[in-house]
Amino acid sequence: MPYARDYGNAPLLTNVSVAYTNAGYVGERLFKRIPVATQEGKFPVYGRQVFIRETTTRGEKAPANEIHFSVTPTTYNCVRKALKAYVSDDERKTFPNVDEAYTMTVTDKVLLDIEYDLAVKACATANYKSTHTTTLSGTSQWSDAANSDPIKDIWPGINAIAKYIGRMPNLAVVGMDAWAKLAP
Question: Residue 60's pLDDT is what?
Fold first, then answer.
């Protein structure tokens, strides 16, 4: 990093700087952040019985039908992430607000690492039922704009999600090659 001594008598602009940030993170839209009180613990996973229709009609003075459902405890473990950066006295003398700039940079690097971890999880077919993934090959790959049909490929996935969770999906992350094919 250059210092004031490197510029001789040239004044430093204090209202202008150039910095880079990553504004396009999507991982936390796919995997919601849930605040927890402890680094590790358990949470309940309820069965899919909510999708089964039950008889709700009852006669006068008759007891209501009783339902049963499953609940299974599942564990979580939060991973700690951190970075630090050294700000020299020379940098503080030369660049106003350098501490804030370093803080933003370190924070963004941690967020980038989290985004990468979430992308790896989202793209790993092992994290899904085998019936909920499709591997495209040859000319059916979306990067082959002349021969592929992404819309035709997407609908079975939409239907599988809707059948599995009882709701239509509301978010998709699409790479540039696929977007080029999907965009008008």
Answer: 94
